[in-house]
């Protein structure tokens, strides 16, 4: 299975295509495509406010959880695997309004 | 410390205003992403794995406390409260938003800082020895020439679109602490027979996928001629450097393909031409810049030196820190202090805003207002009176920056790797943390002695793995992280490129493998004083191969 991903122009944060022109930060909300070709066809229709568009392979686990196949994409969806500083709250709020 | 003149300040402010308008036009849709991307890169703004990344130039690694405070403020105000100091003596923010970036650049411009030429195929930030101007073994202060080169190379119209990025490093001491032989051009300051200073010029070094050691192309180029000489080298490169293949575009490939003799002849011919048209650097200009870098008026602190010995006798941790983290100064009652950004188990090169503020405070209170960033990703207070060391140490302890490990196995250089970098194959930081935790006990580190362990998350080699005594390179094997070990690299005056020892290790086995390499070294060294690199050069890779790949040895 495949999802469409990109980064929001304004804050650079990773997002996934959920429905036509609707992007979410959580991979679990992404729309799943059966084939890469199918996902590729919607790339051209997207707003210029999402950049660095890509189609990536994902798999659905038994519990229904969607996980990216490649480690790079798992890190992109979940954030750095290290806590830079335990003391620092990493939740500085980025605007969550998706385009 | 160099201070912007009106021209510099006006120029940087103008660039900020331009970028602000470019961002506005991008957001309004007037500019497409394809049009905008090169503009943002020219201002140091990359798009990485999770977010944008802003790379801010720290010219030749020199900061004053005002600037370091401001870097910390930017981290708090616009980012997630920390920043990453890099092997190129720059600083990177991992989470800025595009919409905030014009404001960030404005805040930086107020303290004479910017992100120009931190990306792209231009002459990048000139790097140098982090002890410049302070070290006891120095021929001349390399920052003076680094600044002259900065002014010459900034927006040099002819050299803004070179075949590839271009990195220049200058070293002023006898010991090479600037890794000049792995730069496109490395300059070594030398004393000339007429009493003046000049440069030995090395060309064509580099790391990345084709690591090469720079070749000596000219000896003793006089200081007033150095810009003419650099202009000649850059022109030859700009003319003949390959533009057909990104991987063959660095000047090292030109040196390799053209051959040293021919290239020297090309440079000499161009130099003769440049010399007739290009102005020598006037003596007054060198003196004017030199004045900015004058040694601060150090106070007489000789009376406090004896007290230091007493304090060291009382506090073993402090004493260890003094032995490991200080470096000889031109003036005997002073030292240079390295503030390690490598707490055991921490992220190499990262610093929180709190830590940056504290180091800035220490610089203004005790360090004549100077801070340096080292290519080993640490901070340096270049001028500190010995009697102030204890106060500094105690302050550093409160923010977890008093690790006494400079030059030891946990003083690891590591690039951001797959936790942040869009080009990475494998993670670097967790690997560094794991090794650091395993070998972090101070007795163990002292037992191992001087050792440079460098880690890169891909072949671009931003983490200098080729020149680590032990290098680790992350590769991707069918979607799995795998780590190759290289041994025998070095970036000092005896520069060498490490050799791959054998097949790679998965992350879970890597720390064991590194420990096996180290224990093999301890087992075969001639004395406790024989450093890892010297022992390796004496015995070669064989004993290490036997330790890591025992079954291969039997089969063979
Ligand atoms: C945005 C993240 C980064 C990107 C996209 C990037 C990209 C690259 C690339 C493509 C090369 C290979 C150049 C070549 O061989 O022609 C390279 C080399 C290098 N980079 Fe980075 N890098 C990044 C971060 C860093 C960081 C964080 C540091 C410092 C820790 C750094 C320091 C270096 C150094 C020292 C080299 C090798 C020297 C050379 O240019 O030959 N880079 N980088
Ligand atoms: S070496 Fe590779 S992984 Fe590391 S920062 Fe450079 S480009 Fe990224």
Description:
The complex is a heterodimer of chains A (99) and B (556). With 99 residues, chain A is of the alpha+beta class. Chain A is 16% helix and 30% strand. Chain A has 2 helices and 5 strands; from the N terminus they run βββαββα. Chain A has helices at residues 36-43, 71-78; strands at 2-8, 14-19, 22-24, 50-60, 66-68. Chain A has a 5-stranded antiparallel sheet. In chain A, β4 (50-60) and β5 form a beta hairpin. Mean pLDDT of chain A is 84; it is low at 87-99. Chain B has 556 residues and is an alpha+beta fold. Chain B contains 19 helices and 21 strands. In chain B, strands 16, 17, 18, 19, 20 and 21 form a 6-stranded mixed sheet that branches. In chain B, a hairpin with a 5-residue loop joins β8 (185-191) and β9 (197-203). At the A-B interface, α2 of A face α14 of B.
Short description:
The complex is a heterodimer of chains A (99) and B (556). With 99 residues, chain A is an alpha+beta fold.
Work out the radius of gyration of chain B: 23 Å
**Secondary structural class of chain A:** alpha+beta
Largest interface: A-B, 28 and 34 residues
Number of helices of chain B: 19
Main beta sheet strand tally, sense and closure of chain B: 6 strands, mixed
Mean pLDDT of chain B: 94
What's the tally of helices of chain A? Answer: 2
For the biggest sheet of chain A, the summary is:
5 strands, antiparallel
How many distinct beta strands of chain B?
A: 21
Q: What is the ordering of alpha helices and beta strands of chain A?
A: EEEHEEH
Radius of gyration of chain A: 14 Å
Q: What is the chains' assembly state?
A: heterodimer
Distinct ligands, ions and cofactors found in the model: protoporphyrin IX containing FE, iron/sulfur cluster
> Biggest sheet of chain A: strands side by side, in what order?
3-2-1-4-5
Flag low-confidence runs of chain A.
87-99
Could you name the ranges of chain B where pLDDT drops below 50 across 5 or more consecutive residues?
Answer: none
Fraction of residues in β-strands of chain B: 15-25%
SSE-based structural type of chain B: alpha+beta
């Amino acid at each position: 299975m495949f999802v469409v991903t990109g980064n929001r122009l304004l804050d650079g944060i990773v997002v996934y295509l959920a429905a036509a022109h609707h992007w979410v930060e959580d991979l679990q909300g992404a729309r799943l495509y059966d084939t890469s070709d199918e996902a590729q066809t919607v790339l051209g229709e997207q707003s210029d406010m999402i950049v660095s568009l890509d189609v990536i392979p994902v798999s659905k686990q038994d519990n229904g959880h969607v996980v990216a196949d490649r480690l790079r994409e798992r890190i992109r969806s979940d954030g750095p695997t290290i806590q830079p500083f335990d003391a620092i709250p990493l939740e500085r709020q980025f605007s969550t309004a998706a385009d | 410390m160099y201070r912007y003149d009106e021209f510099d300040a006006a120029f940087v402010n103008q660039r900020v205003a331009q970028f602000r308008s470019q961002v506005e036009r991008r957001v309004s849709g007037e500019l497409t992403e394809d049009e905008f991307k090169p503009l943002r890169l020219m201002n140091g703004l990359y798009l990485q794995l999770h977010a944008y990344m802003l790379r801010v130039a720290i010219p030749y690694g020199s900061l004053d406390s005002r600037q370091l405070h401001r870097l910390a403020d930017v981290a708090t105000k616009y980012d997630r409260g920390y920043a990453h100091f890099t092997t190129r003596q720059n600083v990177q923010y991992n989470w800025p938003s595009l919409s905030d970036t014009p404001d960030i650049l404005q805040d930086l411009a107020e303290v004479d800082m910017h992100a120009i030429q931190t990306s792209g195929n231009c002459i990048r930030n000139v790097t140098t020895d982090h002890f410049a101007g302070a070290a006891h073994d120095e021929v001349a202060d390399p920052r003076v020439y680094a600044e002259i080169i900065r002014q010459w190379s900034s927006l040099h119209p002819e050299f803004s679109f070179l075949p590839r990025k271009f990195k220049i490093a200058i070293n002023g001491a006898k010991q090479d602490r600037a890794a000049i032989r792995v730069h496109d051009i490395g300059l070594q300051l030398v004393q000339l027979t007429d009493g003046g200073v000049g440069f030995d010029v090395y060309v064509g070094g580099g790391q990345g996928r084709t690591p090469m050691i720079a070749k000596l192309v000219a000896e003793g180029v006089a200081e007033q001629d150095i810009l003419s000489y650099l202009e000649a080298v850059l022109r030859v490169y700009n003319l003949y450097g390959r533009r057909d293949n990104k991987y063959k575009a660095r000047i090292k490939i030109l040196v390799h393909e053209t051959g040293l003799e021919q290239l020297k002849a090309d440079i000499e011919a161009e130099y003769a031409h440049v010399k007739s048209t290009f102005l020598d650097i006037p003596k007054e200009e060198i003196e004017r810049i030199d004045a900015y870098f004058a040694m601060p008026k150090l106070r007489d602190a000789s009376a406090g030196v004896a007290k230091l010995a007493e304090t060291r006798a009382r506090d073993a941790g402090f004493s260890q820190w003094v032995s490991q983290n200080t470096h000889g100064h031109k003036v005997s009652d002073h030292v240079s202090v390295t503030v390690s950004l490598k707490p055991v188990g921490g992220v190499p090169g990262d610093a929180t805003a709190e830590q940056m503020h504290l180091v800035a405070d220490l610089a203004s209170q005790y360090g004549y207002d100077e801070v340096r960033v080292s290519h080993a990703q640490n901070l340096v207070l270049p001028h500190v009176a010995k009697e102030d060391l204890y106060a500094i140490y105690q302050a550093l302890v409160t923010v977890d920056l008093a690790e006494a490990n400079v030059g030891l196995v946990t003083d690891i250089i590591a690039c951001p790797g797959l936790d942040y970098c869009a080009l990475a194959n494998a993670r670097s930081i967790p690997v560094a943390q794991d090794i650091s935790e395993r070998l972090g006990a101070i007795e163990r580190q002292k037992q191992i002695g001087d050792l440079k362990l460098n880690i890169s998350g891909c072949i671009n080699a931003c983490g200098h793995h080729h020149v680590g005594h032990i290098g680790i390179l992350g590769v991707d094997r069918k979607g799995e992280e795998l780590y190759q070990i290289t041994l025998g690299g070095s970036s000092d005056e005896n520069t060498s490129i490490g050799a791959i020892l054998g097949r790679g290790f998965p992350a879970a086995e890597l720390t064991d493998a590194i420990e096996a390499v180290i224990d093999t070294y301890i087992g075969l060294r001639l004395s406790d004083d024989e450093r890892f690199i010297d022992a390796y050069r004496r015995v070669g890779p064989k004993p290490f191969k036997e330790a890591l790949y025992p079954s291969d040895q039997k089969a063979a």
